[in-house]
Each structure stands twice: as structure tokens, then as C-alpha cells.
Input
Amino acid sequence: MRKVRVRFAPSPTGPLHIGGVRTALYNYLFAKKHNGTFILRIEDTDQARLVPGAESYIIDSLNWCGLHPEEGPGQGGPFGPYRQSERKSIYIQHVNLLLEKGFAYYAFDTIEELDKMRGGEHDHTKYDATTRMAMRNSLVIGSEEAKKLVEEGVSYVVRLLVPEDQKVTFTDRIRGEVTFDTKELDDKVILKADGLPTYHLANVVDDYCMKITHVIRGEEWLSSTAHHVLLYNAFGWQEIMPEFAHLPLILKPNGKGKLSKRDGQKFGFPVFPLPWHDEDPDESFEGFKSVGFHPAALLNFMAFLGWSPGTEQEIFSWMN
Output
């Protein structure tokens, strides 16, 4: 049996929300229960949306909560680097492997061509088996012409070739067996025009390289897991694919939708662990720390959002 290795992988596109704290907490507790390793990985490939100070805020928040990673950007580890922006060569190597094996293809479509496809008479918004052969990609123009365009510096992305008429099934530790039909899936971009991977490729490659055994994340990623399973299959890694658990979202107090960063102001409670101060006063928020909460109280509160010990006990001690 493999040693348990779990990762908390936030994106520094803003301050860490308490939903992210809960995800980190569940990963941390799962690792501790199984004598495993809790890892922090910074997923910063979306360079256009990075917010200055967000990465340090994430690390400071985890430290304040007592959720100390054993591997990560601060302390290193055997499978670093732990920032995705520093792993570009690793992703390129794996993208090339998918291209060689026929599980991915180059796409040279312009924004105008994509808009035309999405606004066509059938109003088909997905780039998939029903539209890919009408677009400008290596499946249509051929590998030699595609190679020539790449060498000439023409902008391109790389897309995953989703197979037709297949069922993708995986087991979620919370929901049980989950199945998607590939006709519901689009050919996801796995390498962007800036040469960096999308979340879909990067998290699969990193989880494999870092020997992650369990992926515990929010349920907003449940539908994307079908693409991730296809990637594991394409690489031939299905035998060591991690187990998945998708946590339910934290809702507003009235139950109407996902809790947002502005709901704290609206309902009168913080939604961030630490205060976040931005040049824009409308983007500055108090945190649980600044209004006087002890970190152990926050963790106790977070643990009960989606879990119950099955007893009347409401207060638990925390050993960091």
C-alpha cells in the first residue's frame, strides 16, 4: 500500500477564502490520520489573474491556522519545485508525449474563428467531436502543416482529444460511482498560447510526479475529473490514479448560493482567516484573526461544515 500523500493546491488569484481553509483542513486531517504527508502546491499558471501578495497570504493563513505543510514552496521537498510556474519544462515534456501518442492536437483557431463557431446556427458552444473537424487544427490541416505553423511562430494551443461515444467512470469517496459520457465533454485546452498548462494538465502531471494518493478538493471540480481520468488513461497511469473526494461547497447563511467574499460584509461575519487590505478599499476585508477568533476555534468551526463525529461532542482539541 502506498504511503498517503495529499496536497492543498490553491491559486494565488486572491486571498484564501474560508472555503479554501476547510479544504486545506480536510487534506491535513486525512494526512495525519493515515500517517501521511501534507503538501502545499501553488497553482500559479494563470499569470494574468495573479494578485500581488496572495501567495504569501495563503502561506501566512495556513501557518496561523496551524496547518503546516511538510513539503511546499517554503521548505522544499523531494518532488519540487512546488510552484507550477517553475515546472514549465515538465509540462512541455508531457504535452509532447500526448501529441506523439495521438491523445492531443494543435489548434490554431483565432478568437474570431472560435466566436463564429460558438455563435453558429446550431448554437454549439463546445469545441468537441461535432465541431473539431470544421476548425483550424492539426487534425484538419495535417501534422506537417501544423509543424510548419509552429516553427513559423503562429499562435496555438494544445487540446486534449476526447474520444467519442465512451463512458468515463470513477469512484468519488463522497458520492460513490460517478459516470460521464464523453459526448458531454469538450476538447479541453491543456497548453495555453503562453506556453503554460491549464489546470487540467498541470494538476494531473503534478499529482503523478509528486506521488499524490488522494485528491480532496471542492465539488466545483467534479465535472472536470472526467477529463483528468482521460489524461491518466492517456499517459498510462490509470493503475496509480489517486482517489478522489469532492467536498460540498460552503453556502450563504440563507442557503442561496456559494458563500462569496462579500457575504461577510453583508451578513456581518468574516470569510477570510486573516485581514486582507488592498489599494481598493472595496477589496479590503477583515479576517477571523483581526476580529478576535482563536485559530483553533476557526478550525473547529470549519471541521463541522460537512462532517459530524456522530456524537454530541462539539469541541475538539488540535495538535499542530
About this structure: The chain has ten helices and nine strands. The chain has two domains: 5-86+251-303, 101-198.
